Fold each of these.
Amino acid sequence: MTAFESCDLLIIGAGPAGMAAALAAAPSGAAITIVDDNPVPGGQIWRDGPGAALPAAARRLREQLAACTNVRVCSGARVVAAPQSHTLLLEDTERAWQLQWKKLILCTGARELLLPFPGWTLPGVTGAGGLQALIKSGLPVAGERIVVAGSGPLLLAAAASARKAGAKVLRIAEQASAAAVAGFAVQLLRWPGKAAQALTLAHPGYRTSSHVLAVQGDGRVESVRLQQGGRVLQLDCDRIACGFGLLPNIQLGQLLGCRLTPDSGQPQALVVDAWQATSQADVYAAGECTGFGGSERALAQGQIAGHAAVGEINAAQKHWPERVRWQAFAQQLQRSFALHPKLKKLPQADTLVCRCEDVPYAAVAGASGWADAKLHSRCGMGACQGRVCGAATQFLLGWAPPVPRIPLVPARIGTLAAMATGPDTKGDPAH
Ligand SMILES: Cc1cc2nc3c(=O)[nH]c(=O)nc-3n(C[C@H](O)[C@H](O)[C@H](O)COP(=O)(O)OP(=O)(O)OC[C@H]3O[C@@H](n4cnc5c(N)ncnc54)[C@H](O)[C@@H]3O)c2cc1C
């Protein structure tokens, strides 16, 4: 039988933005629920596991959250659908339930942009943040030779995690030019904490104007071919971690009808106003679903959204200067690590673009758009529902990514059946 619950404020995502939003709103006494699909709060940056020690600030936030008696944290739970206005259908390993909310804050974060290149489906190839997450969860990499590639500061963070776990990082291949990276480094002086952090992450194998061309191996990664300025080189390695920056997780916002930033080359994000309110009444958004820009920006936005959602306008306004400061950092990041158009040439005709449905690049390259490709090749119709190939084809071919449909994630039959019942039927299947 479907359970029906309600709360004053529902927060989806317990990363820095979601935690900050809950802590800002909690003193109001509102009944708050946070839902997150990870086992514990922390989001992408503050992950627990045998290979990770949480920073003190993250531990404090978690303890503060646990001490709030009016905040209920539902970990390991995911949003499946929005069956009616102000209601979400949720599922965890045990049950499905509908949760009615008065105000909603979307803090769904970001994921990595993965671009297809020959060999990218071989075991041993992961995203850069993906490898970092695996290491934090206990993946043993000691003694392995690892190449990190793609774009953005996450490459340095991933390489640092790999080295700390005993791997040998042979190369960090950054696609941005030396001028762009040097410009970013100079600008970092405006955010001294970030500049200091960058120094600790410096690595002798860091190269600019460098990108992956192909990965080779018999059954798993054995070597990688890299473009390094004007020349091509091959490195023998055991793993390659490759991520081309971050993409805001906008699917739930889109499903709820929230307006997106224009499709102008930059990844699309949820549009918010000064109070972090989206275009939909009672729906706010904070953190990387509104554009990528780091945990500090996510924390500032989360605080503003949390206060605003419970009507504390003055308290929300106090965090505006902080947000301005970190928004400038985000803009600098986006400018400096913009992807070079030559990366559109990465896939070959037989490179799989949709790895869920085994669809090669040749099968979609001539299509007129996403719907055409889907109809003729099943591209995007697998388990990830276009989360990976939709973003890749947007970059490679300029297609607008698929509009999300329910269920947002693969769900149990029982959960889908729960969608058919409403609170007025009290979950009785006979109604
Ligand atoms: C793989 C990866 C690794 C990263 N590592 C670092 C790093 O080492 N250092 C760094 O500075 N930055 C890192 N980042 C960037 C990082 O995302 C941000 O700096 C910061 O964590 C953003 O905070 P946030 O609260 O906006 O989102 P996130 O931290 O991404 O938190 C969002 C949370 O919402 C959950 N969620 C999303 N959708 C749903 C849904 N429908 N139902 C339930 N739960 C949902 C997610 O699982 C996640 O727990 C990483 C990003 C990624 C993608």
Amino acid sequence: MDRVAVRDVEDKPLSPCSREKAERLVAEGQAEWIGSDPPAIRLRRSIPLPRPAEPTAPALAGKRVLLHICCAPCATYTTQYLRGLGAEVIGHWYNPNIHPYAEHELRRETLAGYAAEIGLEVLWAPGYEMPAFLRAVVGREEQGVRCAICYRMRLERTAQAAAQHGMDAFTTTLLISPYQDLEQIQGIGDELAAAYGVTFYFENLRRGFAEHHRLARQHGLYRQRYCGCLYSEWESRDPNATTRRPARGG
Ligand code: SF4
């Protein structure tokens, strides 16, 4: 993934940002490049670390939440965390981006086994809408650009299902990943919440990323090496994949 590691002036690690944002910060004199492979910048100021997110936590107690699930490993910590807030969690599987079909099925079956193990009900969107995904991103295959389309497709289907089933809120396991653009996901989630009349629950869950690896290992879950679409598979193997974000600076 083309994300740039970020440190503050005291060398505290912060959330990674997009290359575009890193370049803007450097151009504005707010940061300097400290590495190119992997890419990293250091801000010229100190950033106080955010306080734990307890203000949003109680909002889910007793609520029915539809959780879009991208894969079983990402569902581990996320489900556990939301249940810990007192939510009744129901999973939702809709991932037409996953390529090829065998990989889609492997991830789906891994989730089915894990869901049975932890007593998680899952709503399974039928079929494999890969052609619709490819049609949606054609001509907009660049990393980041296509991801926004991908987020919207999956979250929209989840918002629809949440409204249909009378859920109180919907959210996504994508919020645990340091490789996904949380700002973009939050914007899309909020738009869909307004359109479908169901709250989008947003919280940065990246603090659970290490724990999700541990839980996935503990449960013997299949762990993929690329995000999902065929472009991400190419990018994971080829630094010259032309769908990567254009590398500038650094
Ligand atoms: S890299 Fe991941 S989020 Fe982006 S389009 Fe591919 S599957 Fe979707």
Amino acid sequence: MSNPRNGRPYRRLTAAQRALGLPCWICGHNIPYEIRGPLAGRHPLAFTLDHLVPLSRGGDLLDPANARSAHRRCNSARGNRTAVRQPRSSRRW
Ligand SMILES: [Zn+2]
């Protein structure tokens, strides 16, 4: 299986974005960039590469202009939200 997120261009983009040392673009707080390695895989505040235009809406995975720095938890919370369907608005009680 080929996952573009495992590819070298994606890793390079991730490293470049991390090197910018920017705060989380979602919540605005600093990202603890000292968290890295195996620990970062689970840490909720670890740096993750997020995308301004979600991939699900046609955003480019590898475009630096579409790359944003985000906490893991902010990134996943946002991702979950866009993945969730519209709430049932016609529900009657
Ligand atoms: Zn955040």
Amino acid sequence: MWSEADKTGAEPGDRRSMAVLVDEALGYVFSAALRAVAAVGVADKLAGGPRTVAELAAQTGVHEGSLHRVLRLVATRGVVEELDDGRFRLTELGQALRSDVPLSARPAVLMLTDHTLWLPSGEMERCLREGGSVFGGIFGMPFFDYVAQDEQTATAFHDGMASFSDAENRPIAAAYDFPELGVVVDVGGGQGGFLLEVLRRRPRLDGVLFDEAHAVAGHRLAADEVKGRWQAVAGDFFAEVPRGDVYLLKRILHDWDDEQCVTILRNCRRAMAPGGRILVVDAVVPRGNAPHQAKTLDLLLMSALVGKERTEADFARLFAAAGLRLSRTIPTDTMLSIAEAEPEP
Ligand SMILES: C[S@@+](CC[C@H](N)C(=O)[O-])C[C@H]1O[C@@H](n2cnc3c(N)ncnc32)[C@H](O)[C@@H]1O
């Protein structure tokens, strides 16, 4: 009797491993299909109910045969569902791809699969061999310079960031006991979604949204409930930041190397009123092998930017180098934690 190994030269377990690794290697094709579906706006066309592929192709102006093949793959992970009559419908998960729902994931999907992140992650082997970011080699300049030089790229980035952040802003704002009075400065605050949540919770607090001009131009602080309590200031956090009592650095330090982080932190410390605080809102990478989104985002930060996701000990070291001390780390109901820093006496 021939054993499995005799016939093929491989144990059955090896073939299973082979199949698993081949599936893993093909994972990027799903991301590409999800991007394609998001980009042409299929979910919006399915909002009113199931449609045939011919109808969807006509409404989105794309190739019918190709759309069917893309939808067939996207259906395997429950974003859409193919019905027995051949029409496709949007699942509950897929509703989040619509552009008109409150927590739309569409801008985030488009930002995370944009060529500015996609191409560098495809060159990850070069990051391993040479160390550091490959963005400059591909695009000829650093990430944020590239974002700033083209209005369409800037809009896609800031809309994507805002969509990415929308789901986390409220639980993070709820996790910290903000003072009743004073000025909160959201450093690199993008379109101001997080600052808006903080100001909503504290009706006597004032806020400053501080970011590059192309980001603050698209601010979302025009809500009546915060009227007269905020300013939008364009500037460079490597040069100086506005005066305030509480500094928010949400998803900022992870974009930069240690030396650059210390410069940003020192600038906040210098501008801070006595008794002030800095709240670094970033992932704190856990030890061990369990999956964590920060471990994936970390590789985008490695290949496209010059930053990284950090551990609690990393934050404590950065703070010490900037004349600050880590007073506490507060978990939130999101993947991010709040590392609170206060000036060393
Ligand atoms: C990853 S985004 C985070 C945005 C926002 N805090 C959030 O959590 O959604 C980084 C932000 O830093 C801003 N930024 C990058 N370089 C900057 C600089 N030199 N000065 C001020 N803002 C900068 C970007 O425009 C962007 O809005």
